[in-house]
Write a structure and sequence with these properties.
Elements: E1 2-8, E2 11-16, E3 28-37, H1 41-45, E4 61-69, E5 81-84, E6 87-88, H2 94-97, H3 111-118, E7 124-125, E8 142-145, E9 153-154, H4 161-164, H5 170-179, E10 188-192, H6 196-207, E11 212-217, H7 220-230, E12 233-236, H8 242-249, E13 257-260, H9 271-281, H10 290-298, E14 304-307, H11 320-325, E15 329-332, H12 337-349, E16 361-364, H13 368-376, E17 385-388
Parallel strand pairs: 10-11, 10-13, 11-12, 13-14, 14-15, 16-17
Antiparallel strand pairs: 1-2, 3-4, 3-8, 3-17, 4-5, 5-9, 6-7
Bound molecules: zinc ion (2 copies).
């Protein structure tokens, strides 16, 4: 089959590899009908995630048709159309039983590698380095899905792939980022980063009852989409002082909820940004927390800072004193996709939202390297790339 393989920093290629096979009785094999490039794939692309090796197949946002199941699989059969959550869960461990799906204790065969980095290992992820299990990803014609009974959401309506694909990652991620903050009527929610996750966080905040949502970015096309599709007030951080603007919008009090939908490769300006960038470049600090610092500073006293953006290592100059003295609540983590995806599918089926509004580029799988380049460099107004094998 054809699959997208990592070669080295900013070098990915489509190559021919052996088809995946059932290796455990609980596996299924999926023929991928659509897959997407996620913002977090760009951290892999940029060579910032340790234990990613040359030849690894990327991709964790995908869906398709079941073509084969292991003999212990009960709830899916060949011919079924499914979306697959990006994190792999067993359904039966301490964490899965508590609906902490992204923290599954049994789906990461390389738990020792991740434990060294994090203390304990989170769940395995498709196409996301060996520290997260070394599973081949779904930017391919076929993919093996472990624990098939648990790791799927069946699509039984005639909704298009583009309408349902994102419940497996970015829509669920944006939604959880807001949901864990317990939005109250009248709340102001500020979101840094208007990529797909940020846009879904803005839409979700509105769905969950926020009075006003504020979008912070520097790309006009992203801010336009946030305004048009998410009814957001927009701030261009290159033209306006973000903290001042947020204060002004909230009668000097600050937003109730601040969401960092950017993560470890934040852009910014000023001395602090260049300091982070220089430290990241020489490997002294893997993450650039420009946005996180700003979110903590901007958040109102007693408010909540939520972090769906990916971090992988250590950060420096974190304003912990501000977080402590303002009594902030911090929420973060990989999405518990299995918990959110079925409920989000219902919202899509009832036409409350059509998530395909984020898609700007539709390419053939063979064009995936070009897709990474335009997404990484924000060429052609790129917001979301969907690939069709
Ligand atoms: Zn993702
Ligand atoms: Zn589990």
């Amino acid at each position: 089959m054809k699959a997208l393989r990592y070669q080295g920093t900013r070098d990915v290629r489509i190559e021919t590899v052996p088809d995946p096979a059932i290796v455990d009785a609980r596996d299924m094999i999926l023929k991928v009908t659509s897959c997407a490039i996620c913002g977090s794939d760009l951290h892999l692309y940029d060579g910032l995630i340790p234990t990613l090796l040359k030849g690894d197949i990327l991709g964790h946002e995908f869906m398709g048709e079941v073509v084969e199941v292991g003999r212990e699989v009960r709830s899916v059969k060949p011919g079924d159309r499914v979306v697959v959550p990006f994190n792999i869960s067993c359904g039966d461990c301490f964490f899965c039983k508590r609906e902490l799906w992204s923290l599954c204790d049994r789906s990461n065969p390389n738990a020792a590698l991740a434990s060294k980095q994090f203390g304990y290992a989170p769940a395995g992820l498709f196409g996301y380095s060996h520290m997260f299990g070394g599973y081949p990803g779904g930017q391919a014609e076929y993919v093996r899905v472990p624990f098939a009974d648990i790791n799927h959401v069946k699509i039984e309506s005639d909704l298009s792939d583009e309408q349902v694909l994102f419940i497996g990652d970015i829509f669920a991620t944006g939604f959880m980022a807001v949901d864990v903050c317990g939005v109250q009527p009248g709340d102001v929610v500020a979101v840094w980063g208007c990529g797909p996750v940020g846009l879904f966080a803005l839409r979700s905040a509105k769905m969950l009852g926020a009075e006003r949502v504020v979008a912070i970015d520097r790309f006009p096309e992203r801010l336009d989409l946030a305004k048009m599709k998410c009814d957001a007030i927009t701030i261009d951080y290159e033209k306006t002082d973000v903290l001042d603007a947020l204060k002004e919008l909230t009668s000097g009090r600050g937003p109730d909820i601040c969401i960092d939908a950017v993560g470890m490769e934040a852009h910014g300006h000023g001395l602090e940004f260049w300091y982070d960038r220089a430290k990241q470049a020489v490997g002294l600090q893997p993450d650039r927390p420009t946005v996180l610092r700003q979110a903590v500073m901007a958040c109102r006293k007693g408010g909540t800072v939520s972090v769906p953006g990916v971090y992988g290592g250590h950060i420096d100059h974190f304003p912990f004193g501000a977080a402590f003295n303002k009594g902030l609540t911090l929420k973060m983590g990989q999405t518990h996709t299995h918990h959110y995806a079925p409920a989000l599918l219902k919202r899509i089926e009832s036409r409350e939202i059509d998530p395909s509004f984020v898609v700007t580029h539709r390419l053939h799988l063979e064009e995936a390297p070009k897709g990474y380049d335009i997404f990484q460099n924000k060429k052609e107004g790129c917001i979301k790339v969907v690939l069709k094998p």
